[in-house]
Amino acid sequence: MKTLTTILIAVLLLASLGQVMGEAAYANKEPVLTLSGLKCTGYQVDVTFVLRNVSSGDKVSELVYKYGKIPPAKSALPGDTYYFVDVLESGYYDIEDAYVVVNNEKIYLSNPGDFKGDYTCGKSLIPSPRLPIKRPLSSEIKLIKADDFALALINR
What we know:
By secondary structure, this protein is of the alpha+beta class. It has a domain of 90 residues: Sandwich (Immunoglobulin-like). Helix content is 22%, strand content 32%. The strands form 3 sheets. Strands 1-2-6-5 form a 4-stranded antiparallel β-sheet, with no helix packed on it. It has a 4-stranded antiparallel β-sheet with strand order 4-3-8-9, with no helix packed on it. Strands 7-10 form a two-stranded antiparallel sheet. β8 and β9 form a beta hairpin. It is elongated and about 75 Å long.
């Protein structure tokens, strides 16, 4: 019985030590800022950045990038993740530089240039080449006599 008790205590100590080590490893992770995505929503482009590995007591500033500044929004999910969401006009975007300040230290964008491309959102003004051409019905076509055409030109 004494051996079983010793084994149980050892297992509990190892489990506790593993949990403490896991928390310490999480605490040592550096904050990481990533561009999570660009996507069309209606006629505009939604830009989303994610800041991960932030401790609960850390002070997080607004995000600064080429197109402006975005205030942070704390995730409602467990863990310390912040989101930065902006709305831009449709167009071409290549976000190469962005940063946020966490406890007086600048954290730069970890994936510059990802998602670069043309984000033309909404209805395009140029018709698609695959769309059928609407042709007038034969009953809608009116023949114009040469004399009527000449009169129309003279009366202009």
